[in-house]
Fold DNA polymerase beta.
Amino acid sequence: MARANEEAAAALQEYAELFALTGGDAFRVRSYQKAAKAIAGFPEDIATVEVRSVPGVGEAIAKKMEEFLRRGSFRQLDDLRGRVPEGVRRLTRVPTLGPKTAIMLYEEFGIDSPDALGEAITAGRLDGVKGLGPKTLANLQKGIEQLEQSGRRVHIGVAMALAEQVMASLEAERIAYAGSLRRMRDTIGDIDILAVAPESIMSEFRAQPYVAEVIAAGEKKTSVRTTSGMQVDLRVVPAESWGAAMQYFTGSKEHNVAIREMAVKKGWKLSEYGLFEGERVIATESEEEIYAALGMQYVPPPMREDGGEVKAALAGELPVLVELSDLRGDLHTHTDLTDGIASLEDMVAAGAALGYSYYAVTDHAPDLAMQRMTLDKALEQRGRVAELQKRHPGMRLLHGTELNIAPDGSVDWPGEVLRGFDVCVASVHSHFTMSRDEMTRRFIAACENPYVDIIGHPTTRKIGKRGMVDADWDAVFRAAARTGTAMEIDSYPDRSDLPSDLVRLAKHHGVKFSIDSDSHAIPHLAHQRFGVGIAQRAWLTSDDVINTWPLDRLLTFLGR
Ligand code: DGT
Ligand code: CA
Ligand code: CA
Ligand code: ZN
């Protein structure tokens, strides 16, 4: 039976420790500690009895506990959590590290993060420190590792779903995500949400069922760890400085540094509250006004990485980025004939509902043995596609396949079979650890196959699971450009493959791209938004992306 006692006692104990840390009266500290022990040891669930009946619990503590039972925290605890230095709070997240030790490490050694603590222990800087024996230090190291594991970056699919859940759970006049998520990075460290809302949004936020732990609670900013382990920062900003706050908290830090320098050159100051000349407000309400006041084009968030965008925006030379609405189709999708879970009919209907001009079905080819594909099955599917085409006169169905690139660069079927497909994606699904030279030759051979149109998920990475294969990408992209083979931007968020830095390199070599969903189920079709984010981070225009092209131009590219 779950009792409220332990949690309430832990909160009171934490409050006692924070109270002591902030120089609180020692007598009261002891009375909080005694009350915490008494609550933990009380035989009945304090949620079902008068808290005042617990020995040692007076009126003031009872009030705090009643508030805790209502909403999982109490005002004085929230205040102290907000007041203790960020570095100390960060340290206290390390399992087995109490606030007393944290503040000692912070004040005497300047250690302000779990990372810094790990380095200090490894370097032996804490050897012989009173209260930190070898066993304690070893436990702290273990705690740091645990914390790192729970705080790892996640792929954008996980982060986006959580951000949308958080925004939907809160009442606000205005609410949006900023940070790396808005810049569409493929991995996200934490989620940054800005809101224009009454102060009560903070307690509403802390009480949400997805909150596992409140890391810091203040009036302007609350940080929580969610049940999935991700950190979410919620900031309440004044309505009139919405644009400035979005600009500041979208980052990247490097982009902001560059922008701030521009402001300083004009004798102005740029902060999260706005662009100012002394007391005079120059721009605060929208990002557009801020960039315009600085004499620049508006810089779309995915470009804000200090990768030349500031100079280009000043010169008025930013490219017009490809957008989701530019996509006219999807060139890599699966059905339940191989490892998809939806039928051909349902997938095609879902594609048509998205208003596509064309849609390619590209089930796996026979060399991926576990899929049990055969030429007969593929040809039978081709017949069904032709039948289905009659039901969807507005959308051209393309019968394709996802081939397997063998170690020598060959694919599943000979040319006379490949010729019968409208589109061939070719991907590496095995032998990931070949040497760089062999892998490079493998990709080049695949590009040189006249029937291979698109190299699927080229690096084969799976975020958090498998790294990229090793290849001389310059050589591969040169071959792709020369042979007219598109590189895929596989939008499936744990792939995000090619990643944006390689897309940028490939574009430099004159390569074209296909932004595909690699769908195995109907909801996956919507993943193309993530692929578009990758493309935008690489400065692609719609001309670079073959599946924004009208059908005729696409068919010419495919050369059938
Ligand atoms: P992440 O969370 O590692 O995926 O990356 P970001 O870019 O979301 O970084 P984060 O969450 O630390 O900070 C959000 C934005 O706040 C960041 O992109 C830029 C802005 N920012 C600007 N200056 C500073 C600063 O001095 N400190 C912090 N923490 N953020 C700043
Ligand atoms: Ca962030
Ligand atoms: Ca953050
Ligand atoms: Zn594949």
